[in-house]
């Protein structure tokens, strides 16, 4: 019996709706239906009765009887997977730019390691194309990117979005509301956070000079902001702003015509999830819902 099929069944039981159940598993509704049909075929009985529109469901008598068995099977399967991991010391690799690694996922990584202490967690900092390449070559299990590309056998799912904020020195003379057309690129620290942000930047500053500093590592930006003249400025995602503004020497201003919200995509192979990728996504979703200014898109 396939544990993924049982997981699909238990999600349907929990949500009573095919669409919400599929979203909770990070799969499409047709993929969920395929798992349910495979389980029904294996057991030789119908488990669910689909309502109007084939989205709302109710359980058959066989479906009701399967619930407790499914939970027992899932528990045993988790114990077997844990035992297997103890013997193999599997490496679980995640690729991302430095921002999500540092400002979004630290708690998720800790919770994941606490749940699976037998694995070796490998965190790789890479640009967006490199993240997709790592997934395609099966050098990484999951990746998080700020841009969406088409790669064969890869799916990219919008995970969350976050607004962008203008950051300046607290001793600067910038007004409470800042217009982009009054800003000088020669005073800016620029980071290519997403394809949408790059387009916004090119629209406002393509005729201006190059930025003072182009930093592809967000961890460097805070130090740069504190090291030069008081007119220096930057634009960062909400998760980075929440960290930067803890420093009394940095503050934020309202930005007219701000960049679009930054969207981060979950990138993985189209093939079925395993226990580790499914568990990581569940932990991640729970933690994302608790972060200020983060808009969960699942």
Main traits of this protein?
298 residues, six-stranded mixed beta sheet
Verbal overview:
It is a single chain. With 298 residues, the chain is α/β, with parallel strands linked by helices. It is 44% helix and 22% strand. It has eleven helices and 14 strands. The protein has helices spanning 3-15, 18-24, 29-43, 61-88, 98-104, 106-115, 128-136, 195-205, 218-227, 238-244, 275-288, and strands at residues 48-50, 57-59, 91-96, 120-125, 142-145, 154-162, 164-169, 177-178, 188-190, 213-214, 233-237, 250-255, 262-269, 295-296. Strand 1 and strand 2 (57-59) form a beta hairpin. The protein is elongated, with a radius of gyration of 23 Å. The chain starts with a helix and ends with a strand.
Give the helix tally: 11
Mean pLDDT: 89
Output the strand order for the largest sheet. Answer: 4-3-5-13-6-14
Tell me the major beta sheet.
6 strands, mixed
Number of separate strands: 14
Q: How would the global form be characterised?
A: elongated
Summarize the SSE layout with pairings.
Blueprint: H1 3-15, H2 18-24, H3 29-43, E1 48-50, E2 57-59, H4 61-88, E3 91-96, H5 98-104, H6 106-115, E4 120-125, H7 128-136, E5 142-145, E6 154-162, E7 164-169, E8 177-178, E9 188-190, H8 195-205, E10 213-214, H9 218-227, E11 233-237, H10 238-244, E12 250-255, E13 262-269, H11 275-288, E14 295-296
């Amino acid at each position: 019996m396939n544990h993924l099929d049982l997981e699909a069944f238990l999600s349907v039981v929990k949500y009573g709706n095919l669409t919400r159940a599929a979203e909770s598993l990070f799969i499409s509704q047709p993929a969920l239906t395929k798992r349910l049909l495979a389980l029904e075929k294996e057991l030789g009985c119908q488990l669910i009765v689909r309502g109007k529109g084939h989205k709302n469901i109710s359980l058959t008598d066989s479906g009701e009887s399967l619930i407790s068995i499914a939970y027992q099977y899932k528990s045993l399967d988790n114990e077997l997977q844990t035992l297997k991991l103890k013997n193999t010391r599997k490496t679980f690799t995640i690729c991302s730019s430095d921002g999500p690694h540092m400002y979004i996922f630290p708690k998720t990584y800790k919770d994941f390691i606490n749940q699976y202490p037998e694995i070796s967690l490998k965190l790789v900092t890479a640009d967006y194309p490199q993240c997709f390449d790592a997934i395609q070559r099966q050098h990484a299990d999951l990746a998080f990117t700020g841009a969406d590309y088409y790669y064969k056998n890869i799916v990219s799912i919008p995970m969350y979005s976050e607004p962008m904020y203008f950051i300046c020195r607290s001793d600067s003379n910038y007004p409470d509301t800042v217009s982009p057309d009054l800003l000088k690129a020669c005073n800016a620290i620029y980071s290519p956070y997403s394809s949408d942000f790059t387009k916004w930047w090119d629209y406002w500053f393509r005729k201006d000079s190059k930025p003072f500093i182009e930093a592809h590592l967000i961890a460097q930006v805070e130090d740069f902001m504190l090291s030069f003249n008081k007119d220096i400025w930057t634009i960062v995602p909400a998760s980075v702003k929440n960290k930067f503004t803890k420093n009394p020497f940095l503050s934020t201003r309202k930005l007219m015509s701000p960049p679009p919200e930054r969207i981060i995509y979950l990138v993985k192979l189209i093939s079925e999830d395993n226990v580790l990728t499914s568990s990581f996504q569940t932990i991640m979703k729970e933690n994302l819902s608790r972060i200020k200014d983060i808009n969960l898109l699942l």
